[in-house]
Write a structure and sequence with these properties.
By secondary structure, the chain is of the alpha+beta class. It has 2 domains: 4-179, Pleckstrin-homology domain (PH domain)/Phosphotyrosine-binding domain (PTB) (PH-domain like, Roll), CATH 2.30.29; 184-284, Roll (PH-domain like). It is built from 5 helices and 17 strands. The strands form 2 sheets. Strands 1, 2, 3, 4, 5, 6, 7, 8 and 9 form a 9-stranded mixed β-sheet that branches. The chain has an 8-stranded mixed β-sheet with strand order 13-12-11-10-16-15-14-17, with helices on one face. A hairpin with a 5-residue loop joins β15 (242-249) and β16 (255-262). The longest helix is centred in the first third of the chain and has 23 residues, at 25-47. The radius of gyration is 22 Å and the shape is globular.
């Protein structure tokens, strides 16, 4: 299942400026060439991370516990909702004692997350739109803290290798086959026992490896899905968006219905992603049945 996140270079309006004639096209081309060089240099620095820096950080991190995974070079890209408009300097990612730590030379403890909260490791394609298609595989670390689900995104030289280390050392679940999808703006509907779809809220949806989140809180687990139906959202809104209809089983055995109104292409991508993770086939709804669609048994 393919999907990608996009992060942007610092002056992300370059294409617009060129189109509007604010800067000559040849200057824009030179800037793109320079950015490509910077991107390639960044990748090279990941591969040539010095042993001295690794040893230095290991000694510093030892203050919070014994090293369980040695520092590996990494760039930190924040969280999916940040849309990757910011990135760190080159730093290191590792496990010291009971903490996952990311640090840089001047800030050895830039980020600390408890390993007890780490639930999943997955991946996503990171695409730099300002660099004409340059991409890399991002490492996604999923944490559950209270009722909140947090995702931290890193660029490392060998994401699958780091994921394997985290699995071996911590026993954390991994999914490096299905690329994560970016968060999506949705309108949420719930279905009552009469088949009527009722508006609930607008918010941000995110499909984690094993669950669907609204507002970064779990609303259902993909293992509980019973049907995935895709079709026009006629009668629910003045827009032409599609409704992704999901029926699922609650913990007490009862059935629930959830609808996500979103862009048609996005809805199709999400439906396919859920289907690939559950084996539940996607059904296409033509919109002529009205409100009397019943929950699946």
């Amino acid at each position: 299942m393919n999907g990608s996140f996009t992060f942007y270079a610092e002056s992300g309006c370059l294409d617009v400026l060129c189109l509007l004639g604010s800067i000559p096209a040849w200057i824009g081309l030179m800037i793109l060439i320079k950015r490509r060089e910077v991107w390639q240099q960044r990748k090279k620095r990941l591969d040539t991370f010095s042993e001295g820096r690794r040893v230095s950080l290991s000694r510093t991190w030892a203050a919070v516990g014994a090293m369980r995974i040695d520092p590996t070079p990494a760039y930190y890209y924040g969280m999916p909702q940040d849309r990757y408009t910011w990135r760190s300097e080159l730093g290191s990612l590792g496990i010291a004692g009971d903490w996952l730590v990311f640090g840089m030379a001047r800030h050895p403890f830039s980020l600390q997350m408890p390993v007890s909260a780490l639930r999943w490791v997955s991946c996503a394609i990171l695409e730099d739109a300002a660099l004409t298609g340059e991409t890399s595989l991002g490492l996604m670390l999923h944490f559950e803290q209270g009722t909140r689900w947090n995702v931290r995104v890193f660029q490392v030289p060998a994401p699958s290798g780091v994921a394997a280390q985290l699995h071996d050392v911590l026993g954390v679940s991994t999914n490096m086959r299905d690329f994560d999808l970016a968060p999506a703006a949705v309108t949420v509907f719930e279905q009552d026992i009469y088949g009527q779809w009722n508006y609930q809220t607008r918010g941000t949806a995110y499909l984690a490896p094993d669950r669907l989140l609204i507002g970064w809180k779990t609303v259902l687990r993909v293992a509980d899905l019973r049907t995935i139906t895709l079709g026009p959202a006629r009668g629910l809104s003045l827009t032409t968006a599609w409704l992704l209809r999901l029926s699922y089983r609650h913990g007490d055995g009862s059935l629930g219905g959830l609808g996500l109104q979103m862009d048609r292409k996005e809805a199709s991508t999400w439906a396919d992603a859920m289907s690939s993770r559950t084996g539940v086939l996607v059904q296409v709804y033509d919109g002529r049945k009205g409100k009397d669609e019943k929950l699946a048994s």
